[in-house]
Amino acid sequence: xxxxxxxxxxxxxxxxxxxxxxxxxxxxxxxxxxxxxxxxxxxxxxxxxxxxxxxxxxxxxxxxxxxxxxxxxxxxxxxxxxxxxxxxxxxxxxxxxxxxxxxxxxxxxxxxxxxxxxxxxxxxxxxxxxxxxxxxxxxxxxxxxxxxxxxxxxxxxxxxxxxxxxxxxxxxxxxxxxxxxxxxxxxxxxxxxxxxxxxxxxxxxxxxxxxxxxxxxxxxxxxxxxxxxxxxx
Length: 233
Prior knowledge:
Layout: H1 24-32, E1 43-45, H2 49-57, E2 63-66, E3 74-76, H3 82-94, E4 99-102, E5 109-114, E6 117-132, E7 135-146, E8 162-167, H4 199-231
Antiparallel strand pairs: 1-4, 2-3, 2-4, 5-6, 6-7, 7-8
């Protein structure tokens, strides 16, 4: 018979409450004496009067999250009609401490297999960290949430997002190579053109040279015809 181990202490899920997000930067400085290594999404808790006024003034541009366990948890303000915005505004004013608002985040796209075809879909990666005796270790992978439709700017389980396990198989980061210098990089030693050129670029240059030779031959023939016609009118 196996044993069951509880990894996270019961009640630790409270740390995932969106209501804490506006205060993460201050908490990090107060507890650790440093800034967050990964900036947090700009968030306002409507329980503060100044934050509530800011949110209500820009309701149609923000992502609203309810802290209540019941009802819809995440709402995109830009997807609501005027009547729905007014209703949401009334709900926030009635119980402001149960709402937070966030700036929308530009989401990246990843190739996704949809009905047998690779299509671009918006996605987010949720990473996990495990505590060890000597610190913390970031797990090699995470949980990826993928938007079911193209162009979706909000990815939530309530809207039918796909959840996929993500595994990082490489032991070391893959080197990134390119023909362009990054800002601050010093020029390296000269390389042979064949090693600094993609296969597609080489193929395009091959056909360009062939067509250039054909054009040159045609021009030479036309010059001969023109000379003959001038010499023997």
